[in-house]
Amino acid sequence: MKVARLLIKSVFFAAFATGAAGYATALWKLLDAPWAVWTSDVRLWMAVGFVLYFPIHIIFRRLIVLHVFGHELTHALWSMLFGGKVEELYVSRRNGGFAAYTKGNFIVTLAPYFFPLYSVFFLILHLIVAPAFRPYIDGLLGASIAFHIMLTVYTIRLGQPDLARAGALFSMSFILMMNFLGLGLIFSAAVGEDVPGFLRDGLSYYPVVWDAFKRGAGALWSRTFGFLDM
C-alpha cells in the first residue's frame, strides 16, 4: 500500500514539476515585452503597484492581519467550492487565525499558497470599473500580486503544517505550478493577452517530457531486458 501511494505521488510530482516549468516559461514570455509596451498600458500601473508594495511590506510588518484573513478565508472559500460548509472563521493579529469547515482535501489545504485572493478581487474590479478608475485598480492589482508572493514565501519559510500533510515535495511542486498558472492567467486577463494561448504554452512541456521519458524507459528496458528479445 505504501509503495503504491509513493508511486502515485511520484507520478503527480513529475506532472506538477513539468507543469511548473511550462507555466513559468509561459509567464516569462508574457512579461518579456518591449519597454514601450510596459510604459503604455495596464502593465505600467501594475508594475508601479508591484514595486511600491515592497516599502509598505517593510514599514507595516508584512500586513500580517490582511494575510491571515486572506489565508483563512481562502481555505473556507475552497472548502465551499468542494461542497463544504464554513463553521467558524477566526482572525487575530496576536494569535493568528483558523477556519473550521466540513470538507477538505489537499487542494483546500494548499489553496492559500497558490490562490491570490486579493489579486482575483482586484482583477474582477479591473474588468468591471469605468476606464477612469482602472489605473488605481491596476496599481492595487500589482501590489496584491507582490503581497501574495512575499507572504507566501514568508509563510513557507516559517514551516507550515499545511505543506507537511500532503508531503513537502508534492506540495511545493503543486504550489509552484498553480502559482505560475494562476498569476499568468491574472496577468493575461488584465493586460488583454491571449488567455487560451497562455494555457496552451504552459502545456507545451508535457509532450517533450513524455517523449524523453519514453526514450529513457526504452533505453533502460533494452539494457536490462534486451536479452529477452534475442
- Strand-pairing-aware structural class: mainly alpha
Name the beta content range: 5-15%
Quote the distance from N terminus to C terminus. Answer: 36 Å
Main-sheet strand order equals 1-2
In total, how many beta strands? Answer: 2
Q: Could you say how many structural domains there are in total?
A: 1
Overall mean pLDDT score? Answer: 85
Oligomer: single chain
3D structure, described in words:
This protein is mainly alpha-helical and 230 residues long. The chain has one domain (40-205). 77% of the residues lie in helices and 6% in strands. It has eleven helices and two strands; from the N terminus they run ααααββααααααα. It has helices at residues 2-31, 35-38, 42-59, 64-81, 106-114, 117-128, 134-158, 161-166, 168-191, 195-203, 205-225; strands at 86-92, 96-101. The chain has a two-stranded antiparallel sheet with strand order 1-2. α3 (42-59) crosses α7 (134-158). The chain is globular and about 65 Å long. The model has no long low-confidence stretch (mean pLDDT 85).
